[in-house]
Each structure stands twice: as C-alpha cells, then as structure tokens.
C-alpha cells in the first residue's frame, strides 16, 4: 500500500510530516530527506501496532495536487 504524506516546514527551520489516512501518524526531522526516512518508519510502526491490536488497517484514499496561483 502507498500512503500520501504531507511535509511542512516548521517555524524553527525543522520539518514535519503526517499521513492523512493514518490519524496521529506523524514525524519530524531537520531536513526533508530526514523526514522522508522517518515517515517510512512511522508508517511501518503505525501499521504494526494496528496489526498487534487486531484493528483494521485504513486503505489509502488521500490524493494530492497543486494549483498554479498565477
């Protein structure tokens, strides 16, 4: 499964990311590359926890696009 994640720059220069389809699945890092690595671990841990607790794993449903604000 492939989940969309959103990366945002924080006011202190760090970055954070979250997965809209996995409530509470977040991570942060000092760079976008670090966040990309961390989000993989966060998603894996999140799904593993759902499996351990015999909870349903949400299907990916979020999509993203950009708009040209010309």
Describe this structure as you would to a colleague.
The chain is of the alpha+beta class and 70 residues long. Helix content is 30%, strand content 17%. The protein has one helix spanning 32-52, and strands spanning 6-9, 15-18, 26-29. The chain has a 3-stranded antiparallel beta sheet with strand order 1-2-3, with helices on one face.
Topology:
Blueprint: E1 6-9, E2 15-18, E3 26-29, H1 32-52
Antiparallel strand pairs: 1-2, 2-3
> How many E strands?
3
Q: Summarize the amount of helix as a percent range.
A: 25-40%
Shape: flat
| Quaternary structure annotation | single chain
Tally of DSSP helical segments: 1
Biggest sheet strand line-up: 1-2-3
Q: Give the H and E element order.
A: EEEH
Distance between the termini: 35 Å
The residue ranges in which pLDDT falls below 50 over 5 or more consecutive positions are none
Major sheet: size, sense and barrel closure? Answer: 3 strands, antiparallel
Please give the radius of gyration in angstroms: 14 Å
Helix/strand-derived class? alpha+beta
Q: What's the average pLDDT?
A: 96
Q: What percent strand?
A: 15-25%
């Amino acid at each position: 499964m492939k989940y969309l994640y959103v990366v945002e720059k924080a006011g202190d220069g760090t970055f954070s990311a979250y997965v809209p389809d996995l409530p509470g699945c977040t991570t942060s890092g000092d760079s976008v590359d670090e966040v990309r690595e961390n989000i993989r671990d966060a998603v894996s841990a999140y799904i593993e926890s759902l499996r351990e607790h015999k909870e349903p794993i949400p299907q990916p449903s979020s999509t993203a696009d950009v708009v040209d604000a010309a």
